[in-house]
Amino acid sequence: MRIAPAAAPPDAPVSRLNPLAKLGAALAVSLAVLASIDPVTPTVALVGVLVALPFGGLRYRRLLRRGWPVLVGAVLVGCANMLFAADQGGTSYLHLGPLQLSSVSLAGGGALGLRVLAIALPGVVAFATIDPTDLADCLVQQLRVPARFAIGALAAYRLLPLLADEWELLGLARRARGIDAGANPLARFRLFAATLFALLVGAVRRGGRLATAMDARGFDAGTPRTFARRHPFTGADRLVLALGVLLAAVALAVSIGTGTFVPLVG
Amino acid sequence: MGDTTRSLRWRTIDIVVAAVLGVAIGVVFWAWSLLWGVFGTAFDFFKPAGGLGVGIWMLGAVLGGLIVRKPGAALFVEVIAALVEALIGNQWGLTSVLEGFVEALGAELIFAVFAYRVFKLPVAMLAGAAAAVFATVWEWFTYYPSWAWGWKFAYTGFGAVSGAVLAGLLGWALVRAMAGTGVLDRFGAGRERARTV
Amino acid sequence: MTTLAVRGFSWRHAGRSAWAVRDVDLHVEPGERVLLLGASGAGKSTLLAGIAGLLPTDTGESAGEILLDGRPPGGTHRPGILFQDPETQLVMARSGDDVAFGLECRGVPPAAIWPRVDETLRTVGFGYPRDRATDALSGGEKQRLALAGVLAPDPELLLLDEPTANLDPAGAELVRAAIAGALADRRRSMILVEHRVAEALPLVDRVVVLAAGGGIAVDGPPAKVFAEHGETLAAQGVWVPGSGPAGTHPSRTAGPTLLRAERLGYTHRDRSTPALSDVDLSVPAGQVLAVLGHNGSGKSTLALLLGGLLAPGTGRVVAEPALTDRSTASRPIAGTDRAAASARGGRSAARPPHRWRAAALAGRIGSVFQNPEHQFVAARVRDELALGPRRLHRPAAEIAATVDELLDRLRLSRLADANPYSLSGGEQRRLSVATALSAAPRLLVLDEPTFGQDLRTWRETVALLGELADDGRGLAVVTHDTDLVDALADRTVTLAGGRLTAPAEVA
Ligand SMILES: Nc1ncnc2c1ncn2[C@@H]1O[C@H](COP(=O)(O)OP(=O)(O)OP(=O)(O)O)[C@@H](O)[C@H]1O
Ligand SMILES: Nc1ncnc2c1ncn2[C@@H]1O[C@H](COP(=O)(O)OP(=O)(O)OP(=O)(O)O)[C@@H](O)[C@H]1O
Ligand SMILES: [Mg+2]
Ligand SMILES: [Mg+2]
């Protein structure tokens, strides 16, 4: 079901948690970091998250294999903040047209890169250990998301691996019919675009048939659905959620306590 | 033919096709996130112009609105796409889901202003632009809080142009092309097409 | 106990000028088992969809009415329906979840769901655990799972649209046994669509034949129907028992070898076991090689490899000069497609087929995929057929002649301007066979070319394929259809678990 590898084996403690507990904890941490633009809040949050991961059965190496883009993203955002910061005080290192770099903006940009890392990482980790079927079930069972939409979306998600196969088959079919692009880059791009479009059209066509198949099984009936798969919100789930909120509070408290806290607005 | 497009109730096919669009667009988002993560570096010389790349992320909202033509369609497709992007594994995790929600509100607003009755090119471009404005303003706070106001507005301006073109124009053209293949026959967007054999 | 009443029902699909179903009257009492027959394209699948309440008003025009116990079908007030193509009816990612889906929709208490799921999976002979991913199943396995999904909510009326079309004979027998079991207590009624009458007869006690021009041609007990109307029905394309195809034994001598597989093997992405291993075989010109084997034995994988579409995982596919030489090409290639020309002869001909340019490949090896829809690329039937020869730069007049002849021979002329995806199952199959023939390749690799055909279109397809072999072309045919093997094959090979069980034998 996945393109990138899951970050934890299916029997790891973190994989057995309710997805909403993980997302809730991640959201709490992300929001706390979002509310501040100082370096201390994200540092505390990051340390907290990284320390917690092994307890959930996550290995840093495996996480890195899936989550490396988060590092690239953070570095890029950090750089953009350095180069275009409003405050270019302190020693100036560079002034090249609109580009500026100074000791203040360097430090500020670095802090903001760290901040983005701390905002994104908890969510990336949460999603890396979530099974889509569980997520849809829990959205309905705990958050009361309308079942028709959640289950409909889940059924559509099943097409994702099929889309990968379909992409391959579309290529094979075109080849079997004498269509290929050869070395010409323009022809290649056109073939690529045409295949992509065919994939989209095929996906929508499948969607229509899937809807018919679902109605044939009674999906459009007004009777309330039952759930074969129960996902209770257990004690462990509550604990994880509480720990997430706690970490968010601690990060803010440390930052305020040490006098470094800078709020996002005001 | 019954005028089912005006009914506000979502048929199963509306839900599933919207979700399928979301899944397909989610893969596009995912690829674009990784690509833009690399090629976007080029814009570090003038980062606010990086707003020119944000339009693609508005595509889900515009396509959803144009095809399904119901309140909430832009929101549903865009949020599914953002969720799928995060599930496959992008660099932003939950943040991109929140951003997806925020930007879809922009597109939804435009479709609502036209009472979910007008789906011509200008409306599509407006929806794309509005979504991009919402998204870039959200990014002022999440990613670029240190920027001077001038840069922030420049970023949003570039974003709006990108949204109008990469989401609005491209989305509108895609819907027209798709209608030509007959897959949208059960939707308002494909209704106008009539060919009998 | 469900009673079905169809009164003067007609349906015309949006965008079509002809009615798919016209003036049908049909009553089915509880416990009755009906075999619904009719030529390919007669409207059988459409009628079943109507009975299942699956023809939304915005997809066409209707007349008459369909009542289940006095009420139109809809919601959970529906018969169970199994479609022609299993791909389109699986909903969930895991097998068990898929069977549970219909039960959840009906609000069955959770505690009762899993025992029921397990029981149903056992009934249909599904050999995997509940959490088996649905997209990791072969076509036949998917069909069995889909049947389980239909049976799980215990419907009182069962609609089955060619439920065994994709199954190997043993698997088909298993599914028929499952169906017979589900009908044993006479509580449930059934309408079965199946072209192969002989196999379906033990399951039914009444035969209804849709007439070509509308209405019902014949209705009654099987013995009476076939005794009184056998000949007229056979002329209309119904496989009347006893009038089936005679097992003609062809006597074609093998020409030069076109293609050889040497210790060929392939493992699909994300799979631990190979789908195919150590296969040695050769396809000669002028003969038909039939590839048999159970579901999941690797036949389709072999077909894609022989067709030059997949790169071999191990071993190799060798194209012999008889396939690649310009002088022996079945028709001279007009025009100046440099890519195609340069791929011919010389060093490049020594390359394996999967490295050939597409135009060269299509001109030499024609492939028919197991699922017809997988190979459509155009928006109209006619364009679909013209595509191959156009890529080979054949003259326009020749293309038009080829297209018209194929349309005519495979009974698709009426549908020349239709969208390929809107065709009936049998029509789609014929179109996909025709697309591979239109480029006139030396070698044809066909995956289940006759499934879903009525007697008439079956005969026409078989005759066409036979002519191609007589004409000196080589055919490799993957099939479960024993009639096809009897009528056409010169040699057969059998795959089991990805390996050839015995060397090629003469049929
Ligand atoms: N979605 C559709 N849109 C337009 N025409 C359709 C559609 N589905 C079927 N048809 C047409 O309606 C006619 C009846 O099709 P149907 O699928 O009911 O035939 P069938 O009796 O099941 O044939 P087969 O034995 O080949 O499966 C055919 O001519 C077909 O081309
Ligand atoms: N795209 C794929 N990805 C992964 N596994 C596959 C894929 N296609 C086939 N397989 C697996 O490879 C094996 C051989 O499949 P194949 O489709 O070749 O069988 P087959 O003999 O054609 O079966 P059937 O008679 O049901 O069509 C099966 O176990 C199947 O599950
Ligand atoms: Mg049919
Ligand atoms: Mg097969």
UniProtKB/TrEMBL annotation, chain A:
Protein topology in the membrane: Multi-pass membrane protein
Membrane-spanning ranges: 20-37, 43-60, 67-86, 106-128, 149-167, 187-204, 239-262
Alphabetical UniProt keywords: Cell membrane, Membrane, Transmembrane, Transmembrane helix
Organism superkingdom: Bacteria
Location in the cell: Membrane
GO terms for cellular component: plasma membrane
InterPro entries, sorted: ABC/ECF_trnsptr_transmembrane (IPR003339), ECF_transporter_component (IPR051611)
Main location, first listed in the record: membrane
UniProt entry tagged with the keyword Cytoplasm: no
Pfam families per record: CbiQ (PF02361)
Official protein name in the record: ABC transporter
UniProtKB/TrEMBL annotation, chain B:
Any Pfam family matching the protein: ABC_cobalt
Keywords: Membrane, Transmembrane, Transmembrane helix
TM region(s), chain numbering: 12-39, 45-68, 123-141, 153-175
Protein name, as recorded: Energy-coupling factor transport system substrate-specific component
Species assigned in the record: Actinocatenispora comari
Lineage, highest ranks first: Bacteria, Bacillati, Actinomycetota, Actinomycetes, Micromonosporales
From TrEMBL, chain C:
Cellular component terms (Gene Ontology): ATP-binding cassette (ABC) transporter complex
Residues of the ABC transporter domain: 4-238, 259-506
GO molecular function term, any single one: ATP hydrolysis activity
Keywords: ATP-binding, Nucleotide-binding, Transport
CDD domains listed in its UniProt record: ABC_cobalt_CbiO_domain1 (cd03225)
Similarity annotation: Belongs to the ABC transporter superfamily.
Entry protein name: ABC transporter ATP-binding protein
Organism per entry: Actinocatenispora comari
